[in-house]
Amino acid sequence: MPRFVEEGFGCDDDAALYGWVPGLESIAPYPPRDASMHEFLLGPYARIPTYYMAAARLVGGTILDLGCGDGRLAVRLAREGFAVVGVDRDTAVLHRLQARRERLPWATRWRIAVHRADYAEDDLAAAGRFSMVMMAGATLTAIPPEVRAAFLKGLRGVLEPGGCLALDYCEHDAARLALDPVRKFNLTIERRNGLSSLVSVTQRFADGIEQIVYDSSELGSDGGMRRHLSTTTKYVVSERDLRSSLAAAGWRVERNLRTSVGAGVHNRFTVCRPRD
User: Fold this and answer.
1) What residues does each domain of the chain span?
2) pTM (two decimals)
3) Ranges assigned E (strand) in 173-224
4) Helix 72-79 vs helix 48-59: angle between axes, to the nearest 10 degrees?
């Protein structure tokens, strides 16, 4: 399991010990056929949802899940009794969330609302006001650095008094990136239909941008091999830069936790409140 460490007491684990490939999660829309692969890529962060649950319990109320995807966290929050508004810019992934919601018991289903918006560009006021705004996974890395502070400032406008902002992101060691800016991984992914996909992943870092290419080959129902490519592009986020953006946006950091998820790779979980 990833080791949970407080700020300032870091450690580097060998991802190979766990079969993990941290930092390869996608922020781009993906088809249902790739769901198994992307679930696998979230493996290093299995403990992170518990941090969001703990933050939600402190404030209660209604949660805004920005970049909700197909509801990985929204459903879990609803099952815990929270009302959740899931916001995403991808229509297809919201349809999957809606389908997933319809399969839930009524007592859980009614707690989940869905709202389509480009959270980096659209006015989120239409989604309502919330006790907690959360940006889980790689959502933060979709925000261009030049508008990050303005975006974070705008989130204060949808927060109820006493509420908080909770977010996490993957932070790569800068020295390691300089030495190894291109990384390749070969994965075997067990699909839900019992077949396997062979996936070659190339991760490139340059000029503050991370690009990941997924090259997947899989056996089709007709016995033939099918290959498809997909990509995702993210902005590299450092703790120093994020703290600067948060301060400029009028937030104070209340909690900053670090989980080592691989050699030179950490997940940062941060809870903030508006400065008085």
Assistant:
1) 43-172+236-274
2) 0.86
3) 182-190, 196-206, 209-219
4) 50
Q: What is the DSSP letter of 104?
A: S
Exposure b/e, 11-38, CB count within 10 A at least 16 = b: eebebeeeebbbbbbbbeebeeebebbb
Superfamily (CATH H level) for 43-172+236-274:
Vaccinia Virus protein VP39 (3.40.50.150)
State how beta strands 130-135 and 159-172 pair: parallel
Classified as helix, coil or strand, 173 is coil
Q: What are phi and psi of 32, to 5 degrees?
A: -55, -30
Q: Of 97, 69, 74, 51, whose CA–CA distance to 232 is shortest?
A: 69
Query: In this structure, how many other beta carbons lie within 10 angstroms of the beta carbon of residue 10?
Result: 12
Structural contact between residues 257 and 4, judged by C-beta atoms closer than 8 angstroms? yes
Whose structure tokens read 């941090």? 51
pLDDT in tens, the chain (276 residues): 333 233 332 333 334 444 556 678 887 777 777 777 777 777 667 788 899 999 999 999 999 999 998 898 999 999 999 999 999 988 888 999 999 999 999 989 999 999 998 876 667 877 789 999 999 988 999 999 999 999 999 999 999 999 999 999 999 988 888 888 998 888 888 776 667 788 888 999 999 999 999 998 887 666 677 888 889 999 999 999 999 999 999 999 999 999 887 778 888 999 999 997
141, 169 contact by CB (below 8 A): yes
Residue ranges of E strands in 89-158: 112-116, 130-135
Residue 21, CB-side half-sphere exposure with 13 Å CA sphere: 21
Torsional sign, CA 148, 154, 159, 163? positive
